[in-house]
Every structure is written in structure tokens, then in C-alpha cells.
Amino acid sequence: MNNKEKKLSTKDKVYNLLRDRANTFVSGQEIASELSLTRAAIWKAINGLRLDNHQIKAINNRGYCLVLSSQPLSGTLIERELGYAKDKIKVIFLEQTESTNEDAKRIGNEGADEEGTITVVVSDYQSKGKGRRGRSFASPKGTGLYMSFLLHPSISPDKAYMLTCAAAIAVSAAIEKITGIVTAIKWVNDIYIEDKKICGILTEGSVSMETGALDYAVVGIGVNIFAPLEGFPEEIRNTAGAIYENGEAVDNVRNRICAAIIDEFIEIIDKADNNFVKIYREKSNLIGRYVKVNPYGDSKKALKGYAKVLDITDSCELVVEYDNGDIEYLSSGEVSVKKY
Ligand code: BTN
User: Fold this and answer.
1) What is the DSSP letter of 243?
2) Is 101 in the pocket of ligand 1 (CB under 6 A)?
3) Looking at residue 201, what is its pLDDT?
4) Given Cys at both, which of 30, 44, 129, 264 links 137, Cβ 3.0 to 4.6 Å?
5) Share of the chain above pLDDT 90, in %
6) 101 CA distance to ligand 1 centroid (A)?
7) Nearest C-alpha to atom 9 of ligand 1 is from which residue?
8) Can you spell out the DSSP letters for 57-97?
9) Among 46-60, 92-106, 128-142, 233-247, which stretch is predicted with the lowest mean pLDDT?
10) Would you say the CB of residue 28 lies under 6 angstroms from ligand 1?
11) Is the pTM of this model over 0.70?
12) How far is the CA of 281 from the centre of ligand 1 (A)?
């Protein structure tokens, strides 16, 4: 009898069913009727799977969920996956923190990073994840990736947003390389899969009062790799998404995406040119669309008007044309796609 013909045990059958729908809940009733099993047999199988180290959540009225995101994010595993940036980066891994951007800024303020090496702080959970314009960034444990680069770039502070664009390209390329999934970039700092935001980027910096130059810049990246089991917070439930909403993920995916982002980003930074803008333009989901322009990112109060996006310049400015024919080059602010 070969392996295929071998009769599957109840435990294997339950595992296969849960794995087919990994990271989503399947009710006990559904498992019972699909596999013709009693509740007691299912419970025994679930316990057996847990003893085999599978992480299976059980919630009353929702059923069972096999968690495939549980592969730990770890500094050692990230470093093991690094390629291009292996000798150029110092990875500081924290199981949990308030905000990796704040950690990186603290190191920047103390001048505690090594010269000639870029530092990146990575965490599995942020209790006070920061988004743009004072918003928070939901950073649940075990499902995402939260990382902040500390850099000393020789660019003027008003061009620091180009780091955000470079990071967006790095994230998009890394996700495609590791998962095969193609993403789009919404100027200036959001990454989308279809109509869901799966990544946000927040660039902050410190400017020397003496020289007016950047002392340091911190580029913070938050990626939703798996959807949190409890769902995204109410206020972003309709707009947020994850790379894997359900179903199978590639092995060791969080550590690999993290390492790939580091490699891609450092390579772009090392090149010190703006050739990456060509790819940024190609990946933009805004060119040719009508958008609402909010220079201060504050919904209705600051609404400047509706405009058509014409292009993205070599300095990553968004070129928009208002209905009255006025053309503006935006290097900051927020735009959102106009809904009809
Ligand atoms: C946004 O979408 O508004 C930007 C979100 C940026 C989130 C990342 S997660 C890692 C880093 N640490 C933070 O507190 N924020 C950034």
C-alpha cells in the first residue's frame, strides 16, 4: 500500500480541512458534517494536533482555526535570510514595544548607532503604533511586521519624503519576490492589494538647528501579513487588508519578507539615484484617476478640491490638475480616490 492509498487518520482529516482554510474559523458543525465525525471525535483530533505543536484556536460559536502565522518573527531568523544587506545592517529585534519609530528615534537622538551601519528595529507587536498625522497604526501580535530604519541620509529635509517612496518600492518588490503577490502603491506611503491597504509607511526625522540638514531620518514600515483573528479595528475594517486574508502562506513568510524589505531598501539607498521612481510610477494606482486633495490630511476641513492625477515627477511629486485647469505639484498632504 503506498502513501496515497493509506487511510487517513481522523486527526489528519481534520488537519487537512483546517489547513485548506487556514487562518479562518471553521465551525464544529461544518467539520462534523464534511467529515462525518462526532463532536467528540473532532475534539480528540484537535487535542492531538495541539500536542503535535499546531496552533489551533477555539472560540465558542465560531469553531476552530489553524493559525499558520505562528512562525515566530525573530532577529536570528531575519538575519539568516538577509542577502545584499547582510554586512550593512544591524537588526535590533524586540518581541514587543510601544513603537519601533520611537525606538529608532531614541537611538538616533542618543547617537547610539554605529557609523557606516544602518540600524533597523523590528518588532512583533506595538502597543502604540503610530500612523501619519497623529493617527494610530493597529499593530497586533503574531500577524504583522513592524520595522523602522534609522538612517543618516545626505538629502535636504524637504526631500525626506523620497525615502518613503523608496521604502514603498522596497516593500512592494519584497512582497512580490517572497509571495508572488503583486501590489500597488498609493502615493505617497500606502501599499494596496486590490482595494485594501496592507502596508503604511511613516517617515520622521530630526533636523539640525545649526545646519538645517537632517541629523537622521526614521523610516517606519507596518505590513499586515495575516489578518488578525479578531479582525481589524472597527474604524479601518473596510479599508485594511492583509497579504494573506486566509489560506496558505509561504513558509517562514514574515522573517523572509522582513529580510527582503531590508535588502531591497538598502540596495536602493546605496545606489543613491532616483531610478526607483520609474518603478514607483509604474506601480502607482493613482495616475489617471480623480482624487480628493487634502493638503493637511484633515478630511473635510482642509479639502482643497478634486483633481486628476497626471503624473509622478522624478522627485516623487504628484502632479494634479484641478477642474479649473490649475496644475499643482504635491510633495506632501493626502489624496484619496474620488468616489462616484
Ligand atoms: C500610516 O499608514 O499612516 C503609516 C503607518 C506606519 C506604521 C509603522 S509600523 C512601524 C513603525 N512604527 C510605528 O509606530 N509606526 C511605523
Assistant:
1) S
2) yes
3) 97
4) 129
5) 70
6) 7
7) 222
8) EEETTTEEEE-STTSPP-HHHHHHH--TTTTTEEEEEESSB
9) 46-60
10) no
11) yes
12) 23
- The answer, yes or no, to whether residue 241 has pLDDT greater than 60, is yes
The whole-chain average pLDDT of the chain stands at 90
d(CA 256, CA 178): 7
> Best of 221, 262, 334 to mutate for ligand 1, by most ligand atoms within 8 A of CB?
221
Three cell numbers written together for 143: 500577524
Contact 338, 331 (CB under 8 A): no
How would residue 2 be classed by pLDDT, with cut points 50, 70 and 90? very low
Residue matched to cell numbers 545606489? 271
Pairing of strands 305-312, 63-66: unpaired
Average pLDDT over every residue of 213-241: 92
How is residue 132 annotated by DSSP?
Answer: G
Helix orientation angle between 28-35 and 39-51, rounded to the nearest 10 degrees:
100
Q: Which residue type, as a one-letter code, is found at position 318?
A: L
User: Rounded to the nearest whole angstrom, what is the distance from the C-alpha of residue 161 to the centroid of ligand 1?
Assistant: 14
Q: Phi and psi for 26 in degrees, rounded to 5?
A: -120, 130
